[in-house]
Amino acid sequence: MRKKKPSSFNEKTLLNRLLKNYALILVSLILIGMVSIGMNTYWQSMGRGENTAQEAVDTIGQSLNDKNLQGKTMLNGLTDNQEKINNLNRYMDFSISNYLNYSYDQQLETGNYLFLPSQVKNFYTMYDNIESIIMVLNNYTDYYLSTAEDKSGRKISGTPRLNNKFYLAYPITNPITLEVLGSFYVEFSKKDIVDSLTHLTTFDGLSAYVFSNTGYQLLTYTEKNDAFDQQLIQQKMNETSQLPIQKLEEKNILEHLQTTSGFDILVIVSKEKILKHVFFDLRILMLGGLVLILLLLYLLYRTFTKYSQQVDIIMDSMALVSKGDLNTRINDQETQFELKELSKGINTMLDNIEQYIADIYKLEIKQQDAHMRALQSQISPHFLYNTLEYIRMYALSEGSEELADVVYAFSTLLRNNTDQAKTTTLEKELSFCEKYVYLFQMRYPDRIAYHFEIDEVLEELVLPKFSIQPLIENYFVHGIDFSRNDNAISVKAHLVNGQVRILIRDNGKGISLQKLKVIQAKLASEQIKLHDSIGLQNVNERLRAYFGPSFLMAITQNETKGIAIELSFNDPTS
């Protein structure tokens, strides 16, 4: 037994020094990374807070503009001419039955049907965000109220209650005299604004406030924020009708917008909440960094202690290769760093060697063996050719053309079998196969049909001899049923999108699914074995070695119960 060489380094000096240096480098890099990530997290969070505040202001402003436009559109639909103003007064003056008669009379007189409950009800159909509609006319003690539950609305005595609701107010004016006749209120749903604000940020501390031009607080949205800010805003608005912008900026990221429609929009994001969020992330980062440092130090120690063991793994594998076992591969999952790369390089080299043997040496061995068998079968070939030609000519002279064709086909097959050329063209190969099938057809008349088809561009395609014939021979050996009179086989060769596809199909006995899976597994295997078979696996290996990795042989059951074999590979001329 060969003795192992002693370790080439002193573990008490070089290894310990390397471990200390690597440990110091790793710990320094991790600490620098933690500090960098912490600072980056802080500035990103502050920037995200500013972006969130700006997006919230834009979202609320856009929503207010849309709602304001909807409110003006609805008001305009009710008051844009004197006839509609008169219609509103009649509604407030009359009972609902008298008002309905009035609407019918006006329709007969003017052709316009103005019925306030129907007009308002249509608004709910046009806009799905309306909660209620209120109209107050100065000359009446009653006001009109329509809600989502009672869309047609009704007259109510007293003063409408607008507190704590999202109402947009508009003056009702006479289109001719411009006299203010009353007020029009539309209560909109706040759900779309609240949903938008809820999804804007991933941390707590966002608040939003909307005030009308009269100081009425339309919207208050808070998300776990300090109640101090809300109280401060309400107090200043009650005292001075001004927002405490400077005071709020001390502790918050703030965005303020006064719209052209007179709305005040205020969005604040608490800096304290952002800092708490950052500190929480940093605590997780510090804990993760500590775990990472300990894990890396442990892995570093394990790497050096297992170094010699990994070298032994590589040497043991190479010893097996030197004995001729080319299927040996180094398990690179058991090696690390430069030894891992060395293992992969050796495995790649062994793959290339095995592939080279498969592509060159084994192909030569098989072809020489095939030629030897062909030579051994030759008995005075010229005498046989001359004799067959004499028989063919004699058959022609006696008027037996069918016998002459059979002799000619057999003579051609015999010449092709004894020809020592290693390759042929696809046209010649299929011509040879066609004559092979023809002889069977002559032997079993009215029982076999065949069809051969080839694209003109593939006629001169070069491929190894006897690439297609063994596949057809398998059909006549294993698949044909001579008790039937509808046996059929077809061979088609086409060029499709730069890829050669050769399809051999028959309607024979077929094969069982279990045996088909075994054959498919053998065809899919990349291992090339030396054997005497001239069947499917032999053809598969020869063509794969000739055309390279693009070659694929697929065998399946077809719809006619028989089998279909498809050979496909890239066009070598393209």
From TrEMBL:
The lineage of its organism: Bacteria, Bacillati, Bacillota, Bacilli, Lactobacillales. Residues 305-358 form the HAMP domain. It is found in: Membrane. It comes from the Bacteria. One of its GO terms (cellular component) is membrane. SMART domains: HAMP. Keywords: ATP-binding, Membrane, Nucleotide-binding, Phosphoprotein, Transferase, Transmembrane, Transmembrane helix. It holds the Pfam family His_kinase. This is ATP-binding protein. The chain crosses the membrane at residues 21-43, 282-301. Its main location: membrane. GO terms for molecular function: ATP binding; phosphorelay sensor kinase activity. It comes from Enterococcus ureasiticus. InterPro entries: HAMP_dom (IPR003660), HATPase_C_sf (IPR036890), HptR (IPR051552), Sig_transdc_His_kin_internal (IPR010559).
